[in-house]
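Key result, reporting period 2: structure in, sequence out.
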Protein backbone atom coordinates (compact mmCIF):
# COMPACT_ATOMS: atom_id res chain seq x y z
CA UNK A 1 0.00 0.00 0.00
CA UNK A 2 1.28 3.44 -0.94
CA UNK A 3 1.12 6.13 1.72
CA UNK A 4 0.47 9.62 0.35
CA UNK A 5 2.42 12.07 2.51
CA UNK A 6 -0.06 14.87 3.14
CA UNK A 7 1.92 18.11 3.38
CA UNK A 8 -1.15 20.24 4.00
CA UNK A 9 -2.15 18.28 7.12
CA UNK A 10 1.39 18.28 8.54
CA UNK A 11 1.86 21.98 7.82
CA UNK A 12 -1.38 22.73 9.63
CA UNK A 13 -0.16 20.77 12.63
CA UNK A 14 3.15 22.70 12.62
CA UNK A 15 1.38 26.06 12.23
CA UNK A 16 -0.75 25.14 15.26
CA UNK A 17 2.38 24.47 17.31
CA UNK A 18 3.98 27.76 16.20
CA UNK A 19 0.78 29.69 17.01
CA UNK A 20 0.74 28.18 20.49
CA UNK A 21 4.38 29.16 21.13
CA UNK A 22 3.77 32.69 19.83
CA UNK A 23 0.81 33.05 22.22
CA UNK A 24 2.96 31.84 25.12
CA UNK A 25 5.63 34.44 24.32
CA UNK A 26 3.09 37.26 24.09
CA UNK A 27 1.16 36.18 27.20
CA UNK A 28 4.48 36.06 29.06
CA UNK A 29 5.02 39.74 28.22
CA UNK A 30 7.31 39.11 25.24
CA UNK A 31 7.21 40.60 21.77
CA UNK A 32 5.56 38.76 18.87
CA UNK A 33 8.04 37.50 16.26
CA UNK A 34 8.54 39.74 13.22
CA UNK A 35 9.49 38.72 9.68
CA UNK A 36 10.53 41.08 6.89
CA UNK A 37 10.35 39.89 3.28
CA UNK A 38 12.24 41.76 0.57
CA UNK A 39 10.76 41.48 -2.88
CA UNK A 40 12.81 43.02 -5.66
CA UNK A 41 11.33 43.31 -9.14
CA UNK A 42 8.15 41.81 -10.52
CA UNK A 43 8.51 38.04 -10.74
CA UNK A 44 4.90 36.72 -10.64
CA UNK A 45 5.86 33.45 -8.87
CA UNK A 46 7.78 35.41 -6.22
CA UNK A 47 4.77 37.70 -5.74
CA UNK A 48 2.62 34.64 -4.99
CA UNK A 49 5.20 33.13 -2.61
CA UNK A 50 5.67 36.34 -0.65
CA UNK A 51 1.92 36.93 -0.38
CA UNK A 52 1.35 33.41 0.93
CA UNK A 53 4.20 33.74 3.41
CA UNK A 54 2.60 36.95 4.75
CA UNK A 55 -0.75 35.14 5.07
CA UNK A 56 0.90 32.25 6.92
CA UNK A 57 2.50 34.70 9.37
CA UNK A 58 -0.83 36.32 10.06
CA UNK A 59 -2.41 32.92 10.85
CA UNK A 60 0.10 32.20 13.63
CA UNK A 61 0.54 35.68 15.13
CA UNK A 62 3.89 36.52 13.52
CA UNK A 63 4.07 40.14 12.36
CA UNK A 64 5.16 40.40 8.77
CA UNK A 65 6.35 43.28 6.65
CA UNK A 66 6.89 43.13 2.89
CA UNK A 67 9.33 45.64 1.40
CA UNK A 68 9.21 46.05 -2.36
CA UNK A 69 11.75 47.63 -4.65
CA UNK A 70 11.73 47.89 -8.47
CA UNK A 71 13.81 45.75 -10.83
CA UNK A 72 16.40 48.50 -11.17
CA UNK A 73 16.97 48.87 -7.41
CA UNK A 74 20.69 49.71 -7.02
CA UNK A 75 22.79 47.19 -5.09
CA UNK A 76 23.80 49.82 -2.51
CA UNK A 77 20.18 50.65 -1.79
CA UNK A 78 19.34 46.96 -1.24
CA UNK A 79 22.29 46.52 1.12
CA UNK A 80 21.29 49.66 3.05
CA UNK A 81 17.75 48.30 3.37
CA UNK A 82 19.10 45.03 4.79
CA UNK A 83 21.30 47.01 7.21
CA UNK A 84 18.21 48.85 8.46
CA UNK A 85 16.37 45.57 9.02
CA UNK A 86 19.42 44.05 10.71
CA UNK A 87 19.26 46.79 13.33
CA UNK A 88 15.45 46.95 13.60
CA UNK A 89 14.53 45.61 17.07
CA UNK A 90 11.06 44.45 15.93
CA UNK A 91 12.37 42.27 13.09
CA UNK A 92 13.60 38.78 13.96
CA UNK A 93 13.81 37.27 10.49
CA UNK A 94 14.83 38.67 7.11
CA UNK A 95 13.97 36.90 3.88
CA UNK A 96 15.31 38.06 0.53
CA UNK A 97 13.01 36.45 -2.03
CA UNK A 98 14.98 34.70 -4.79
CA UNK A 99 15.65 34.93 -7.66
CA UNK A 100 16.94 38.51 -7.55
CA UNK A 101 17.00 40.53 -10.79
CA UNK A 102 20.15 39.74 -12.81
CA UNK A 103 21.65 43.17 -12.07
CA UNK A 104 21.96 42.33 -8.36
CA UNK A 105 24.64 40.19 -6.71
CA UNK A 106 22.89 37.34 -4.88
CA UNK A 107 25.87 36.20 -2.81
CA UNK A 108 26.73 39.72 -1.66
CA UNK A 109 23.09 40.36 -0.78
CA UNK A 110 22.50 37.16 1.18
CA UNK A 111 25.76 37.57 3.09
CA UNK A 112 24.58 41.00 4.28
CA UNK A 113 21.70 39.54 6.30
CA UNK A 114 22.66 39.30 9.95
CA UNK A 115 23.24 35.58 10.74
CA UNK A 116 20.97 35.88 13.77
CA UNK A 117 18.09 36.95 11.48
CA UNK A 118 18.92 34.53 8.65
CA UNK A 119 15.65 32.55 8.74
CA UNK A 120 16.20 31.26 5.19
CA UNK A 121 19.51 29.69 6.23
CA UNK A 122 21.27 31.03 3.14
CA UNK A 123 24.05 33.03 4.90
CA UNK A 124 27.49 31.37 4.60
CA UNK A 125 27.64 31.19 8.41
CA UNK A 126 24.37 29.22 8.51
CA UNK A 127 25.63 26.91 5.75
CA UNK A 128 28.81 26.31 7.77
CA UNK A 129 26.86 25.48 10.94
CA UNK A 130 24.74 23.00 9.00
CA UNK A 131 27.72 21.10 7.63
CA UNK A 132 29.47 21.18 11.02
CA UNK A 133 26.36 19.68 12.67
CA UNK A 134 26.03 22.78 14.82
CA UNK A 135 22.81 24.53 15.78
CA UNK A 136 21.73 27.18 13.25
CA UNK A 137 19.13 28.10 10.69
CA UNK A 138 18.43 25.41 8.09
CA UNK A 139 16.77 26.22 4.72
CA UNK A 140 13.03 25.64 4.92
CA UNK A 141 12.55 23.10 2.10
CA UNK A 142 15.01 20.46 3.31
CA UNK A 143 14.06 20.98 6.96
CA UNK A 144 10.39 20.64 5.96
CA UNK A 145 11.17 17.36 4.21
CA UNK A 146 12.99 16.07 7.31
CA UNK A 147 10.03 17.06 9.48
CA UNK A 148 7.66 15.26 7.11
CA UNK A 149 9.77 12.08 7.13
CA UNK A 150 10.08 12.19 10.94
CA UNK A 151 6.39 12.83 11.59
CA UNK A 152 5.42 10.11 9.11
CA UNK A 153 7.59 7.55 10.91
CA UNK A 154 9.84 6.86 7.91
CA UNK A 155 13.08 5.22 9.07
CA UNK A 156 16.33 6.83 7.88
CA UNK A 157 19.16 5.09 9.72
CA UNK A 158 21.34 3.18 7.23
CA UNK A 159 19.02 3.91 4.28
CA UNK A 160 20.34 4.66 0.77
CA UNK A 161 19.24 8.22 -0.04
CA UNK A 162 19.63 9.54 -3.57
CA UNK A 163 19.22 13.30 -4.09
CA UNK A 164 18.82 14.51 -7.65
CA UNK A 165 19.63 18.23 -7.90
CA UNK A 166 22.54 19.99 -6.21
CA UNK A 167 21.17 23.45 -5.49
CA UNK A 168 22.27 25.45 -2.47
CA UNK A 169 18.64 25.86 -1.41
CA UNK A 170 17.53 22.21 -1.55
CA UNK A 171 19.89 19.47 -2.76
CA UNK A 172 23.05 20.25 -0.80
CA UNK A 173 21.42 21.04 2.58
CA UNK A 174 19.14 18.00 2.12
CA UNK A 175 22.27 15.84 1.92
CA UNK A 176 23.73 17.34 5.09
CA UNK A 177 20.51 16.65 7.02
CA UNK A 178 20.19 13.07 5.77
CA UNK A 179 23.84 12.37 6.62
CA UNK A 180 23.12 13.60 10.13
CA UNK A 181 20.44 10.89 10.35
CA UNK A 182 22.94 8.25 9.20
CA UNK A 183 21.69 7.80 5.67
CA UNK A 184 24.15 6.87 2.94
CA UNK A 185 23.81 9.85 0.64
CA UNK A 186 24.37 10.07 -3.12
CA UNK A 187 24.12 13.42 -4.94
CA UNK A 188 23.13 13.26 -8.60
CA UNK A 189 23.01 16.00 -11.22
CA UNK A 190 22.88 16.66 -14.96
CA UNK A 191 26.23 14.91 -15.58
CA UNK A 192 25.47 11.76 -13.57
CA UNK A 193 26.00 8.63 -15.66
CA UNK A 194 23.03 6.24 -15.91
CA UNK A 195 20.78 8.28 -13.65
CA UNK A 196 17.90 5.76 -13.68
CA UNK A 197 20.20 3.03 -12.34
CA UNK A 198 21.53 5.24 -9.54
CA UNK A 199 17.99 6.31 -8.63
CA UNK A 200 16.86 2.66 -8.55
CA UNK A 201 19.42 2.04 -5.78
CA UNK A 202 17.52 4.48 -3.54
CA UNK A 203 15.43 3.59 -0.52
CA UNK A 204 14.69 7.31 -0.40
CA UNK A 205 14.63 9.29 -3.65
CA UNK A 206 14.51 13.09 -3.54
CA UNK A 207 13.76 14.77 -6.88
CA UNK A 208 14.68 18.46 -7.00
CA UNK A 209 15.56 19.46 -10.56
CA UNK A 210 12.57 21.50 -11.73
CA UNK A 211 11.66 19.32 -14.75
CA UNK A 212 7.99 18.35 -15.00
CA UNK A 213 7.23 14.62 -14.61
CA UNK A 214 10.90 13.76 -15.24
CA UNK A 215 11.09 10.78 -12.87
CA UNK A 216 9.24 7.69 -14.13
CA UNK A 217 9.00 4.06 -13.05
CA UNK A 218 12.48 3.42 -14.50
CA UNK A 219 13.92 5.60 -11.69
CA UNK A 220 12.18 3.93 -8.77
CA UNK A 221 12.82 0.75 -6.79
CA UNK A 222 9.74 -1.11 -5.59
CA UNK A 223 8.90 0.02 -2.04
CA UNK A 224 11.03 3.20 -2.14
CA UNK A 225 9.99 6.48 -0.51
CA UNK A 226 9.80 9.28 -3.10
CA UNK A 227 9.90 12.99 -2.23
CA UNK A 228 9.01 15.38 -5.04
CA UNK A 229 10.40 18.90 -4.58
CA UNK A 230 9.46 20.17 -8.06
CA UNK A 231 6.73 22.75 -8.55
CA UNK A 232 6.36 23.27 -12.30
CA UNK A 233 3.47 25.26 -13.72
CA UNK A 234 2.39 24.02 -17.16
CA UNK A 235 0.47 26.53 -19.24
CA UNK A 236 0.40 24.78 -22.65
CA UNK A 237 -2.27 22.17 -23.48
CA UNK A 238 0.16 20.40 -25.83
CA UNK A 239 2.68 20.01 -23.01
CA UNK A 240 0.02 18.45 -20.75
CA UNK A 241 -0.86 15.98 -23.52
CA UNK A 242 2.84 15.19 -24.20
CA UNK A 243 3.59 14.50 -20.53
CA UNK A 244 0.34 12.78 -19.62
CA UNK A 245 -1.15 11.28 -22.81
CA UNK A 246 -4.77 10.23 -22.31
CA UNK A 247 -4.95 11.59 -18.72
CA UNK A 248 -8.49 12.99 -18.94
CA UNK A 249 -8.68 14.19 -15.31
CA UNK A 250 -5.54 16.27 -15.73
CA UNK A 251 -6.71 17.66 -19.06
CA UNK A 252 -9.99 18.75 -17.48
CA UNK A 253 -8.17 20.43 -14.59
CA UNK A 254 -5.98 22.24 -17.11
CA UNK A 255 -9.02 23.41 -19.10
CA UNK A 256 -10.85 24.75 -16.07
CA UNK A 257 -7.83 26.62 -14.62
CA UNK A 258 -5.65 27.41 -17.65
CA UNK A 259 -2.63 25.72 -16.06
CA UNK A 260 -1.65 22.74 -13.92
CA UNK A 261 1.02 22.28 -11.28
CA UNK A 262 3.25 19.29 -11.88
CA UNK A 263 6.06 17.90 -9.78
CA UNK A 264 9.38 16.46 -10.99
CA UNK A 265 7.87 13.00 -10.52
CA UNK A 266 5.31 11.41 -12.85
CA UNK A 267 3.04 10.75 -9.87
CA UNK A 268 0.43 8.62 -11.65
CA UNK A 269 2.94 6.10 -12.96
CA UNK A 270 5.38 6.19 -10.02
CA UNK A 271 3.08 6.19 -6.96
CA UNK A 272 1.98 2.53 -7.27
CA UNK A 273 5.62 1.42 -6.99
CA UNK A 274 6.37 3.35 -3.81
CA UNK A 275 5.76 2.74 -0.11
CA UNK A 276 5.27 6.50 0.37
CA UNK A 277 5.26 9.54 -1.90
CA UNK A 278 4.60 13.28 -1.72
CA UNK A 279 1.99 14.73 -4.09
CA UNK A 280 2.29 18.02 -6.00
CA UNK A 281 0.61 20.23 -5.02
CA UNK A 282 0.08 19.49 -1.32
CA UNK A 283 3.35 17.76 -0.50
CA UNK A 284 6.66 19.52 0.15
CA UNK A 285 5.41 23.06 -0.66
CA UNK A 286 3.22 23.57 2.44
CA UNK A 287 5.95 22.17 4.68
CA UNK A 288 8.47 24.66 3.26
CA UNK A 289 6.18 27.52 4.18
CA UNK A 290 5.55 26.12 7.66
CA UNK A 291 9.27 25.75 8.38
CA UNK A 292 9.88 29.42 7.62
CA UNK A 293 7.48 30.17 10.49
CA UNK A 294 9.37 27.73 12.73
CA UNK A 295 12.66 29.44 11.86
CA UNK A 296 11.20 32.89 12.52
CA UNK A 297 9.87 31.75 15.88
CA UNK A 298 13.28 30.31 16.70
CA UNK A 299 14.99 33.61 15.78
CA UNK A 300 12.55 35.54 17.96
CA UNK A 301 13.09 33.24 20.93
CA UNK A 302 16.87 33.45 20.62
CA UNK A 303 16.76 37.24 20.36
CA UNK A 304 14.55 37.46 23.45
CA UNK A 305 16.65 35.01 25.44
CA UNK A 306 13.96 32.29 25.52
CA UNK A 307 15.17 28.67 25.39
CA UNK A 308 15.10 26.80 22.07
CA UNK A 309 15.70 23.17 21.20
CA UNK A 310 18.80 22.20 19.20
CA UNK A 311 18.83 23.05 15.48
N1 LIG B 1 12.94 31.23 -3.93
C1 LIG B 1 12.65 29.91 -4.09
N2 LIG B 1 12.67 29.29 -2.90
C2 LIG B 1 13.00 30.21 -1.98
C3 LIG B 1 13.17 30.16 -0.57
O1 LIG B 1 13.05 29.12 0.09
N3 LIG B 1 13.50 31.34 0.02
C4 LIG B 1 13.66 32.48 -0.67
N4 LIG B 1 14.00 33.57 0.00
N5 LIG B 1 13.50 32.56 -1.98
C5 LIG B 1 13.17 31.42 -2.62
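The corresponding designed sequence is given below.
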Amino acid sequence: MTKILDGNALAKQIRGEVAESVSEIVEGGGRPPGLAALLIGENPASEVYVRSKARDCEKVGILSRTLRRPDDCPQDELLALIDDLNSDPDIDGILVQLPLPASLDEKLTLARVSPEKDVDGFHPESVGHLWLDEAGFVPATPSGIMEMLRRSGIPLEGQQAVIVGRSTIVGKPMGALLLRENCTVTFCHSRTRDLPAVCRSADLLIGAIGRPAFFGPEHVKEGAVVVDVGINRITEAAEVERLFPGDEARRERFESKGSVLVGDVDFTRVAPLTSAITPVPGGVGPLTRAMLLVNTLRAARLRQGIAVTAS
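The mean pLDDT is 97. The chain has two domains: 29-117, 140-284. This case is discussed further under Risks and Mitigation.
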